[in-house]
Amino acid sequence: MATQETQLLDEIIVNTRRKMITMGGTALAGLAFAGATKAYAQTTAITDNDILNFALNLEYLEAQFYTLAVSGVTIDKLTTPIPVAVNGARRELSR
Questions:
Q1: The pTM is what?
Q2: Within 13 Å of residue 41, how many CA atoms lie on the same side as its CB?
Q3: 26-50 residues labelled b (16+ CB within 10 A) or e (exposed)
Q4: d(CA 57, CA 65)
């Protein structure tokens, strides 16, 4: 059976945890709100070149995935080489 001292300690621990979770949630919400307003305030100009580079990289990622699924090798190990640096290297379109 719990003594009065252990009951008092349990009550203090529960209240302290509740306060800590409440304060942590409030701080996290504040950070999320500050980050959202900062991200909303920043505007970046996305160019056609950025869009085309994204599409090209997505195509290379798809080729890598499907080639690995079908033949078990990556596109840089194929017998018919694809002329691009793969596995994390980025290829820029000429400007």
A1: 0.40
A2: 6
A3: eeeeeeeeeeeeeeeeeeeeeeeee
A4: 12
